[in-house]
Amino acid sequence: MTNRSATMSSPVGTLTVVANDTAVVAIRWDTESDDRHPDAHNPVDRSLGDVVPCDDISSHPVLAAAIAQLDEYFAGTRTDFDLPLEPIGTEFQRQAWEQLAAIPFGETITYGEQAVRMGDRNKMRAVGAANGKNPIPIVVPCHRVVGAGGKLTGFAGGIDNKAWLLDHEFRVRAGA
């Protein structure tokens, strides 16, 4: 299946949204390397396959909805996303990403807390690695996971962007 992509400007840089006919499969940072994606080091994972730029996003409802909702998020008028998602990853990665999706807007948890929620505090490092492979950042909010003591650690979009996203959410939540 050929995936389509569209780029958008945002306060955290240019984002590329990738979708198939029915769901968002990835959001890529303009600064990230290809080795972050789930297929890069694990032959069990499927790759994104062919990605073709979409000339007219109005002809692709999934891309249009994703970009509209991301724009609303950045404008501070959206706190929850309502998009069909198909992240590509291992079973463990998908479980970690499901836990990310459960973190409320404007709140944070630690990697240890996420590991506990997944049933094994000893898998903290594995959880961090899975979060680092999250193919749909912002919508699947890996930026809401912080190190012990609230320290900002590891983020494919860069620590400055992680800080911006968290500050944005805290400001929007405080103003609500």
What are the defining features of this structure?
4-stranded mixed β-sheet, 176 residues, 6 strands
Report on the architecture of this protein.
- By secondary structure, this protein is of the alpha/beta class.
- Helices cover 34% and strands 16% of the residues.
- The protein contains five helices and six strands, in the order E-E-E-E-H-H-E-H-H-E-H.
- It has a four-stranded mixed sheet, covered by helices on one side. It has a two-stranded parallel ribbon with strand order 5-6.
- A hairpin with a 4-residue loop joins strand 2 and strand 3.
- Helix 3 crosses helix 4 (124-132).
- Residues 35-46 have low confidence and may be disordered.
Sheet with the most strands: spatial strand order: 3-2-1-4
Order of helices and strands: EEEEHHEHHEH
What's the total number of strands? 6
Bin the strand percentage: 15-25%
Q: Between the first and last Cα atoms, what is the distance in angstroms?
A: 41 Å
Assembly form of the protein: single chain
